[in-house]
Structure formats: structure tokens, C-alpha cells
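Section 5: illustrative case.
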């Protein structure tokens, strides 16, 4: 049996197909924004291969990288509607549905990946958010992976927060990144990711901020000779499945999906941790000067943004922020 639904001009097919005399193949579509050279794709491919092998061919995960099925918001909406089976998203990205989720992307709130996991799974705030995602969006969180920590590259050295003043800093159109730039004294300059290399090369902007893996993949080190370890936002990556898709699977295959998603998240995390461990030396070999500014003034500078967050999200936001800071 197949079901065919059309979303945003795309035809998505999922469901069960006869396989042999007594077995069924469950085809699951997984959408990714990242391209095939990324760690995200490698981890998704690892998950797909393991599910196929350990289910004896009953689960076939079809990967659609490079935003073929839309951007991250579009794919979350497709997961919610049950017309996309699996996907990735940062926990903070759910703020488009539940504004209080923005706490996970507030600069300097999350200290490391262990803290991120505790903030997501061990706090009442995190548990309540997961329940909202499940009950209201029809999406289950299977596991969580580390996806890099955002650092800042520039065309001049950043030795202290004062060096950020007046810096034209490219950021994505996300409040957390915009406020990081603004509150440290820089001039936030939103721009499409595809345009960043040329803008850096021509000095249309003075810098940008991204995880080390993205800085290498996009070769920003060719046109930016200073890297400041600002550690301002930790990126996670949730492995997600539509409840509608999960319910189509027999119980034993549901458990397999959960188990293998956790193992894939561990592999995903290792890819980023191992890569980051060697990237500082790589950048230095490319002639990049790496600085380690004192981050205490950067954290202090974010307090007005925290106040805005708590004002916008009331008691829930205030309690959530306090609980997440305490759980570290």
C-alpha cells in the first residue's frame, strides 16, 4: 500500500510495500538541509544503513539532502502533517511554534553538549516542551546529537569584546545570532549563507559566525585570517520522526528505530567532536590567527537579551531559564 500526498508542489510517497511472501518494507523519507558532504548527512546515512541491515531490509530510509524538500521550517511542518517521515532540527528551532524554546539558543546559556542534554531531557521545562512537540505537532524526539559550537571569524583580531565594536558581522535571520552581534557592539548584517564567501572576500562584511566545521567546509579561512573562539551558541541536532509514521511500524521496528537513532546521534556527535579537535591546527596551518578572548564580558553583555526573553515568555520563560542554568 502506498499513500501519495502533495506538499508545496512536491509529491511525497511513503508507506508499506509488499516484500516477499510475508514481509513488508516500510519506506521512510528523511529530509535534511545539509548537503552530502556534511557530517549530518554522514550520520543520516549511518542511520539508514543500520536500520536496513538490522531490520533485515524491512526499513528503508530514503535520504533527501540539500533542502530538496524545503528549509528546516517547511520540513518541520511536513513532519507535523505526517507527509514527511523523519528529519533533523535544533531544539531551539521549535521556538517558531513555542516561543519559550528560544532559551536553548540564547547565547552563553548552554555551556557544553552535556549541559544541552540535561537541559533537554532532565528539566521539567524540557520535558514539558517535548510533550508539547509530541501532542501538538505530532512529532517525536528520538535522540539528540552535538552539531558544533559557533565561533567568529573576522578580518581583524578579536582579543576582547571591545574589538567587536562596529564590526559588520554576517548573521542568519535568527534572533539569537542577531542579538549576539548587537549586544557585543557589532553591527548585525543578515545575509543568505550562499552569499557569505563573496561578502567576506570583498569586505562587504567584516566577519561571520558559524561552527568550525562550517568554516572549513565553506573555506571561509581563505578570506578571513582571524578566528575568535567566542563559543557563543552551541548547536544541537534532534533526530525526529512523525508520530503518524512511527505508528505505521510494528512495535519491534519502532523500538529498533529508537535504538538506532540513539546510536546514530552518538556517531553524529563523535564526527563533530573529532573534527573540531583537529580544526584549530588546520586553520593555523592555513595562516589563520586564533584568539581566545575573555568570554565573561560577552556573557554579561547578553543580559538585556535574557531580560527580553523572560518578558516575552513570562513565568514559563523565567522558570525555564533559571532551571536550565541550574542543571549544568
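Designed sequence:
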Amino acid at each position: 500500500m502506498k499513500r501519495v500526498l502533495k506538499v508545496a508542489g512536491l509529491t511525497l510517497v511513503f508507506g508499506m510495500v509488499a516484500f516477499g511472501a510475508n514481509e513488508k518494507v516500510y519506506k521512510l523519507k528523511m529530509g535534511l538541509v545539509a548537503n552530502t558532504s556534511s557530517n549530518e548527512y554522514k550520520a543520516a546515512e549511518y542511520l539508514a544503513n543500520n536500520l536496513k541491515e538490522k531490520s533485515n531490509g524491512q526499513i528503508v530510509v530514503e535520504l533527501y539532502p540539500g533542502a530538496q524538500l524545503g528549509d528546516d521550517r517547511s520540513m518541520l511542518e511536513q513532519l507535523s502533517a505526517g507527509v514527511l517521515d523523519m528529519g533533523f532540527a535544533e531544539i531551539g528551532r521549535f521556538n517558531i511554534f513555542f516561543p519559550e524554546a528560544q532559551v536553548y539558543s540564547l547565547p552563553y546559556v548552554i555551556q557544553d553538549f552535556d549541559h544541552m542534554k540535561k537541559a533537554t531531557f532532565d528539566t521539567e521545562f524540557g520535558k514539558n516542551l517535548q510533550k508539547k512537540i509530541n501532542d501538538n505537532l505530532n512529532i517525536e524526539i528520538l535522540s539528540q546529537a552535538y552539531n558544533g559550537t559557533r565561533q567568529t571569524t573576522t578580518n581583524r583580531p578579536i582579543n576582547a569584546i571591545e574589538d567587536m565594536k562596529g564590526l559588520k558581522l554576517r548573521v542568519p535571520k535568527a534572533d539569537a545570532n542577531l542579538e549576539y552581534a548587537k549586544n557585543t557592539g557589532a553591527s548585525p548584517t543578515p545575509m543568505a549563507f550562499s552569499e557569505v564567501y563573496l561578502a567576506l572576500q570583498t569586505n562587504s562584511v567584516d566577519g561571520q559566525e558559524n561552527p568550525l566545521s562550517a568554516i572549513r567546509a565553506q573555506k571561509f579561512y581563505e578570506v578571513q585570517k582571524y578566528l575568535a573562539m567566542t563559543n557563543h551558541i552551541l548547536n544541537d541536532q534532534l533526530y525526529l520522526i512523525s508520530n503518524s509514521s512511527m505508528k505505521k511500524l510494528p512495535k519491534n521496528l519502532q523500538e529498533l528505530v529508537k535504538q538506532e537513532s540513539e546510536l546514530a546521534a552518538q556517531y553524529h556527535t563523535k564526527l563533530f567532536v573529532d573534527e573540531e579537535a583537529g580544526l584549530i591546527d588546520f586553520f593555523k596551518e592555513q595562516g589563520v590567527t586564533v584568539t581566545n578572548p575573555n568570554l565573561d564580558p560577552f556573557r554579561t553583555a547578553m543580559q538585556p537579551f535574557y531580560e527580553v526573553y523572560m518578558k516575552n515568555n513570562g513565568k514559563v520563560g523565567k522558570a525555564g531559564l533559571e532551571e536550565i542554568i541550574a542543571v549544568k
